[in-house]
Amino acid sequence: MDLYYIIYCSIPGKAFCKADVKTLLAAARGNNEKFGITGMLIYLPDLFIQMIEGPKAEILRLYRNIEQDNRHYRVVLLKEGPVHHRRFPDWSMGVDDHEVPLSDPRQSFLVSDDKVFSLFNLMDMPETLHN
């Protein structure tokens, strides 16, 4: 499979309450599973940071949709490229569970967890991810 990833950040177009984030995640997870997309979302009150990974055509399509989505303001592409394996294979969209209680705790993490640090480490790696 031709795997690809994008890491971007954006400013929420409006203030999100926990219910808004939960609704967003429910829709994203359903669509992501359908198109073979996995990833991680870090939601802070004034910032989204997200990594999406999956088939290249689907990742590029999703990113174009995000750029046009009024829930995002100032979408900035931080890094993109081919990847040889998924970093978040079990997450249709993982999220920090401090902010949003989830029915499936396997889809959650703490901002201090190793998975978050791995996301930021990816941003410092060379363009093509081989590991």
CATH topology: Alpha-Beta Plaits
Residues in helices, as a percent range: 25-40%
Structural class: alpha/beta
What is the total domain count?
A: 1
CATH architecture: 2-Layer Sandwich
Figure out the total of helices.
3
Characterise this structure.
The protein is α/β, with parallel strands linked by helices and 131 residues long. The protein is built from three helices and six strands, in the order βαββαβββα. The protein has one domain: Alpha-Beta Plaits (2-Layer Sandwich). It is globular. The relative contact order is 0.25.
List keywords for this structure.
single chain, 131 residues, alpha/beta, Alpha-Beta Plaits, BLUF_domain, Acylphosphatase-like_dom_sf, BLUF domain-containing protein
